[in-house]
Structures are given as structure tokens and as C-alpha cells.
Amino acid sequence: MLFVQVVLPVFLIVCTGIMLEKTARLDFRTLTISSLYVFCPALVFSALMKREFELTLAGDLFLFMVLYTAALYGFSWLIARAAGFDRESRSALLLTTVMMNVGNFGLPLTFFAFGEAALEVSVLTFVLFNIPLGTLAIVIAQGSRGSLSTALLNMAKIPIFHGVALAFLFKMLDWVPPTFLLRPIDLVGQAAIPVMLLMLGMQLARTKWQKRVGFLSLATLTRLAVSPLLAWGLTVLLDIKGLPRSVVILQTSTPSAVLPLLYALRFGVRPDLVAGTILTTTLVSAGTLTLLLYLLTPQ
């Protein structure tokens, strides 16, 4: 029943996005800009403003993000070297295993699984993991052709971080915006989750699967099997318990992120392998995430 109640709804909306792309050919750029500059910042701001913010939890999740990213990067780099991948293939493996779809896929999944109660943790997780997605992923893709400082500057321009900063500022000042401002922001933010899933489907419809069984198997196994085990172990190490534990494990066990495909195309880092892995991990995750949900949900 968990598959029908939680995982299937996510894939139904993704499939709707695929059909929209195949039939209507919507303006993907407009949707992307709307999501990046309006829907997602509104969701982040609204979720943080409506709940009491726990600094301890934020600190634990930040430490989790750093350790998780570093450990997965090290593991993926070692297996890429052991497999004898060239630099481009090694970068493609790092992009598809270290960077998960914590937003387009992870936010809706945790919402369907745990409801409104999980929104604060899932939004924080989404925001924090956008840090490596907006910096480390670019550094991996561009290799020696760019600097970390440039990547950090680009990350600072991402609007969701502006929404977080504004929410933190209002919390520190103990000021709640008037209802006539909060209501439209909250309403706009509610559009973020379905729009992100539709965009994921549209992007998948544009993705061409490449038959590289060895690479795809290694990347899929790392993303969907190794990463949940790592996340589970880190929650024990950091003593993250209860709902935050379930949310962060589930949300970081999602398929490969879509955004690194744009970086791979931009810098010529085997976009065929990155695209193939995104598609493969998304399809296989229907089974792995269902199993994970059974393990995380009290029977």
C-alpha cells in the first residue's frame, strides 16, 4: 500500500509532465524561471515562517549534508578510479551519485509520505543540499576550467537562499509579516511541489537513454543502495531521531539530480552518461524507495 499511497502519486505527476512534453511542448524555460524565482522561494519562506525554527536541528542537518556529501564523493571517486574511468566519465559518475534529486523528487515524496509535519525538515534538507548542488557540482563539471569562488558567487544568486535569509531575519527580529502578505506567499508556494514534478517529467521526456550497462549499473547501485546506507549510518552517528531521521534518509535516497545534466551539457562532461543515469535511477527508484519506506514506517 505504501507504493500506491506514496510512490505512485509522485510517478503519476511525473508521467503527466512526460505527456505534456510529448504533446503540448510547453515552454520549459518559462516554467523553470517561475519555479526558481517564484514558487520555490515562496515555499521555503512560507514553510520556515509557519514553524518554530530549531537551530539545533538545522545544525545537525548541515553537518549531515557536509559528511554525506564528502563521504559519497570519496566513495564514488574511489570506485571510478578502480573501474578505470577517464576524467569525463569519472566526473559524470560523481555528478550522478553525489547529487540527488532532493527538490523535484524529494520534496513531493516526503510530503506524500509524512505530510505537513515533515515540511520544515524537508525544506531545510532541500535548501542545505542546494549548496553542493550549486557549487560542488559546477566544480566537478568544469574541472580545472573554473574556480570555487565563481561557483560560490553563482550559488549566492539562487533565489531560494534569499527566501531562507529573509525568513531567518524575520525570526531573529521576532516579526511576523501581516496576513495579507503571508497568504499569497503560502498559496504561491503550494504550487512548487506539483510544478517541480511536472518539470521533472518534461526533462525526462527530453532525455535519451544510453546503453552503457557497466557505468549505469555502478552509478545506480551507488545512488540507490549505497547512499541510503550512508544516510542511515550518519543519522545514527549524529543522533538524528524520529521524523527528521526518516525525512532526511528518504529525501537523500532519491534518484540522480537533473540540474547536473545542464552542467554536463555546458562543459561537455559525458552528458550521455549523466542523462542515462538520471533516467535509469528514476525508474529503478520506484522499487528502492518503496522498500525504504517500509523500513522507515512503523508497522
UniProtKB/TrEMBL annotation:
It is found in: Cell membrane. One of its GO terms (cellular component) is plasma membrane. Its main location: membrane. Gene3D superfamilies: 1.20.1530.20. Keywords: Cell membrane, Membrane, Transmembrane, Transmembrane helix, Transport. It is a multi-pass membrane protein. Pfam families: Mem_trans. The keyword RNA-binding does not apply. InterPro entries: Mem_transp_PIN-like, Na+/solute_symporter_sf. The chain crosses the membrane at residues 6-24, 31-49, 61-80, 92-115, 121-140, 152-170, 182-201, 213-234, 246-265, 277-296. PANTHER family: AUXIN EFFLUX CARRIER FAMILY PROTEIN, SLR1864 PROTEIN. This is Transporter. It comes from Geoalkalibacter subterraneus.
